[in-house]
Each structure stands twice: as C-alpha cells, then as structure tokens.
Design a protein that fits this description.
about 300 residues; mainly beta; ten-stranded mixed β-sheet; eight-stranded antiparallel β-sheet
Length: about 300
Amino acid sequence: MNKTTPPPGPWRGFLPAITAVLTACGGGGGSATAAPATPAPAPAPAASAPAPSNSWALVWSDEFDGAAGAVPNAANWNYDLGNAENSGWGNHELEYYTSSARNAQLDGSGMLVITAEKASNPGPCWNGSPCGYTSARIHTSGKINFTYGKVEARMKLPAGAGIWPAFWSLGQTGAWPASGELDIMEYIGKTPNTTYGTAHGTGYSGAQGIGKPYQFSAPVADDFHTYTLIKRPNEIIWQVDGVEYHRLTPASLPAGAPWVFEKPFFIILNLAVGGDWPGSPDATTVFPAQMKVDWVRVYKEN
C-alpha cells in the first residue's frame, strides 16, 4: 500500500499465537504496523521444496458471524489509528482511522462492514487540517500470522473517486520495506474495472513495487469477488475468483534485490480515502462508502 502511483507446497509458517493449529494497499504506511524491530538479514530462500499439491486444509478463518453492531473479534484483530500521527500513512491520505463501531462492525448477516464517512469529529490529518473522513484499518499482527499457505477473502468493494480499499499483508518483523509487503488486492475508484496485486521489498518498493492489474469485464464494485494469495518457498501467486494473474519468484526481482518473503506475515483490511495514487474524492463520490467482507480464511497446503 505504500506505492504513490499505480503498479503497472509445504506449510511451515504459523507462529504459536494459535497453539497447535497455527504457528502466528486502501492506505499504505507499512512501517506503522510492522513490528519496529531492527530487520534481521533475510533468510536465504529454500534450496528446494516439494512439488505443490494444490490441496488445501483450512487452519483459520473469521466468518464475521455475530450480532449486528458488534466490533471485530479482538482475538483476531487490532486497530491502526490516526493520520497525522502516522504522516498520512505515507500516502497523504485524507481519512482518520478510528476504533469506532461506526467505522468497523458486523452487520448481523455474516459480514464485516468497514465504513468510510464524512467526519463529524475529525482528528488531525498530515497537512495540519482536520481530516475530512473517518474510516478503519484492522490487522492481525501478533495474533494471526502466516509464512506459507493460501490466504483469501471474499468481499464487495465500494466505488467512487478517491476510494482506496485494500486487503494486504506485512512482514511481522523489520522496518518497511525490508519487512516485505504483499498487496493481495488494491482497488482505486478511478480504474473501476481493475484491481491490483503487488509485492514490495528493498529495492522494489513504493511506485517501484512489482505488480500486475487484474481486469474485470464489469465494474469491480458491482459484485462480491474472492481475492487470493498463495505463498510458498520462492513463489508467490495472486488470484481473483480462482484465476491466477500474477506470479513472483526470486528471478522476478531487480538485480541484487533481496527476496524478503520467507518469514511470517500478518493480514490487513482497510478502506482509505484519498492519497497520492487514487486522488481525492469529488462531488460524485458517495459517502458513506462501505467495504463488505464476507470472510477471511487461511489454509495450509497438504
């Protein structure tokens, strides 16, 4: 999510946050949620790995079942807060992130709804003015992390100029971009038929992230879609509705750039407003804007 312009096997990875079963871009600012530890040297990519099975077993999910108005499950999700406090999340965004149920709550019908709305009691934006909008950015850091497997979410995105929903992931340790960032899905209102999948690391971050667009035959916001990331040693695959459109290996990186992805990552859902990439809302943008998430699931490969 740190870009400022559009981006042109085995299971070993859960940290012990969930005992025996698990061993753990809208709006960027990856370093604000990654653990602030000094990044260790990236481990060398695995020399070899078993052939992928493409057979999956569910190990964790949040189905967002609960009463209408309930906030996201605190066992799974944390909040990122503010705007000016985090330098506009690295992208000159216009929303102030809160932990209010107005901005992130269950709808009582199995959905998480993240809402961006015009602010009634705004906090400060990066530009010294009160932010014009509030929204939410939630993440699983320290609670649900994955190193390898399949991570996906089914969601319906809001439309409109200046709207920037995202489903993405950051490395659990290190300062961005050495932490690594994997944007599973980003969408901006000014390209209504397109979503983007992008990887960021040292030497290929921000506007130089390695990404590809996925082109829909109709506006993305018209329906629910499933966005998927498959992460294996030396290989990362992006899919939309089961269709692969982007694949990354160490050979894909710029000469000399490190492969920073053989480590635990955590999951982020957010709905940003404005920023260098999507631009600002205009008179046609409808608020409140809602990002509806049916579920988020993580699988191991058999």
